[in-house]
Amino acid sequence: MTISSDALSEPGPERSLMTAGRVPTVTDISPDLNDHELAAALATATGSVLTKVRQEMIDRGTDHWTLKDVGDLSAHEFIMDVLGRTRPDDKILSEEGADRSDRLDAPRVWIVDPVDGTREFAEPPRVDWAVHIALVQNGEPVVGAVALPAEELTLATSPAPVLPPAHGGAPRVIVSRTRRPPAAQMLARRLDAQYIEMGSAGAKAMAVVRGTADIYAHSGGQYEWDSCAPVAVAQAAGLHCSRLDGSPMLYNNPDPYLPDLLICRPEWAEQCLEILANPDR
Ligand SMILES: [Mg+2]
């Protein structure tokens, strides 16, 4: 059985950080915020910028290719400007920026995806797209925020989201709209699970945090910016997060390719890892 993501828009227990009204500017975000507050404020503000860009371009009849490009670029530039002003000594790895090797020795590296789910961003009124802001220290995603701007919602590491109680039925495995990775198929088959379909790695991970899905398993290719902020938030909420082999998710590697991950409710972690370790059983 497949549940459409359109059925998943009911509000959860999370805190909305979106400010109604005018679009934020770079100087709205104070350098005095702590790292958690900064990540949340920046993700929310970038989401507001994107929401405005999206609406203006739709009103003008812009084609979806241009909408994707302008969305990525405007969000990237906003994030770079804010972090450059508020945390000038930190390094940044952005999906939309040049990768600089000086991040490898840096004690603090922000890993950001200005628009996660660009395809869905360019398909209004879809809501499954996100802004990812994370801070990595010693390879670990210690701070993070994922904004879901079309839902006016930002989930962050502090205050951490409260995980809803287990739903008790068959587990729900969340997959892409276009593709079901082998790891997800294996888990769904062995656990007799339902599929839920959604775009955006961040939106998928946050569906597990919000209790509308139980397991997000990806194999076959992702980059550090796809999972870093979602993993930071999911870990803060008490979810299991690891590679498919159970090893930890570590970031700021020389090659940002980080092809697989498992995010799931803690009650499913042991079974999922056991199944993934024994694919032929
Ligand atoms: Mg992106």
Name of the CATH class of the largest domain = Alpha Beta
Give the integer mean of the pLDDT values.
92
Order of helices and strands: EHHEEHEEEEHEHEHEEH
Q: What's the number of helices?
A: 7
Strand tally is 11
Class by alpha and beta content? alpha/beta
Q: Return residue spans where pLDDT drops below 50 for at least 5 consecutive residues.
A: 1-20
Alpha-carbon Rg, integer: 18 Å
Bound molecules: magnesium ion
In terms of DSSP E residues, the strand content is: 15-25%
The assigned CATH architecture of the largest domain is 2-Layer Sandwich
Number of structural domains: 2
> Main sheet?
5 strands, mixed
Helix coverage percent:
25-40%
- What characteristic shape results from the CA principal axes? globular
Per the CATH scheme, the topology name of the largest domain is Fructose-1,6-Bisphosphatase, Chain A, domain 1
Oligomeric state of the chains? single chain
What's the helix and strand layout?
Layout: E1 2-3, H1 35-59, H2 64-86, E2 91-94, E3 109-116, H3 118-121, E4 130-137, E5 140-148, E6 153-156, E7 172-175, H4 182-191, E8 194-197, H5 201-209, E9 215-218, H6 224-236, E10 240-242, E11 261-264, H7 266-277
The structure holds magnesium ion (MG).
Name some characteristics of this structure.
disordered N terminus, globular, 5-stranded mixed β-sheet, 281 residues, 19% strand, Fructose-1,6-Bisphosphatase, Chain A, domain 1, 3-stranded parallel β-sheet
Structural account:
The structure is a single chain. The chain has 281 residues and is of the alpha/beta class. It folds into 2 domains: 11-156, Fructose-1,6-Bisphosphatase, subunit A, domain 1 (Fructose-1,6-Bisphosphatase, Chain A, domain 1, 2-Layer Sandwich); 172-277, D-Maltodextrin-Binding Protein, domain 2, CATH 3.40.190.80. The chain contains 7 helices and 11 strands. It has helices at residues 35-59, 64-86, 118-121, 182-191, 201-209, 224-236, 266-277, and strands at residues 2-3, 91-94, 109-116, 130-137, 140-148, 153-156, 172-175, 194-197, 215-218, 240-242, 261-264. The protein has a 5-stranded mixed beta sheet with strand order 2-3-4-5-6, with helices on both faces. A 3-stranded parallel beta sheet has the order 1-8-7, sandwiched between helices. Helix 5 runs parallel beside helix 6. It is globular. The structure holds magnesium ion. Magnesium ion (MG) binds next to strand 3.
